[in-house]
Design brief:
mainly alpha; 7 helices
Length: about 170
């Protein structure tokens, strides 16, 4: 039964990845929401630090393999985000949308600032701050616009998967 649940989350992850990388290409924009980053805190708040870190490791490896960026960047950042959110899940209200939106804004901002600093160190020079700040605000805006939709979809899917595991569902049909 746990294999079935893992398969459902894998399919949902691949759906989010496909949606993020293909559907948003139809719009005339240079950015799209990071759906896998939005899903990671939801999963880590629900499952804890170990599963959050493993899921972050998995999506980080996927993103590092398919994107042309510094190899290991997504792997390290997503694993760290999954671990830290999962570790602090008892300090957060996991089933509240406002808390999730605040967490989304903070994680996005932290990741964008870390990316900007990493690029400055990797290139050996300071980059202009205004374009980096504009890109960070645009990314945060996209993520905050899509986060409530993903939050509702996640809770619907979680309820559906858990109802399949219910004793009543299997033994009283």
């Amino acid at each position: 039964m746990m294999v079935l649940i893992g398969f459902a989350w894998l399919l949902f992850t691949l759906f989010l990845f496909t949606l993020e990388n293909h559907w948003f290409l139809f719009f005339n924009t240079t950015q799209s929401p990071d759906l896998l980053l939005l899903f990671l805190p939801l999963y880590a708040m629900d499952q804890g630090k170990r599963k959050g870190a493993v899921y972050g490791l998995g999506i980080g490896a996927l993103l590092d393999v398919v994107t042309f960026s510094y190899f290991g960047w997504h792997l390290a950042t997503r694993t760290l985000i999954g671990y830290l959110v999962g570790k602090n899940r008892m300090n957060m209200f996991a089933d509240r949308l406002p808390t999730y939106l605040i967490l989304t804004a903070l994680v996005t901002l932290l990741l964008q600032v870390a990316r900007g600093l990493f690029l400055c160190v990797a290139l050996g020079r300071w980059l202009p701050l205004l374009p980096l700040a504009a890109a960070a605000l645009k990314c945060m805006g996209w993520n905050l616009a899509v986060a409530p939709i993903l939050w509702f979809c996640y809770h619907k899917l979680k309820r559906r998967v858990r109802s399949r595991m219910d004793y009543y569902y299997y033994y009283h049909l």
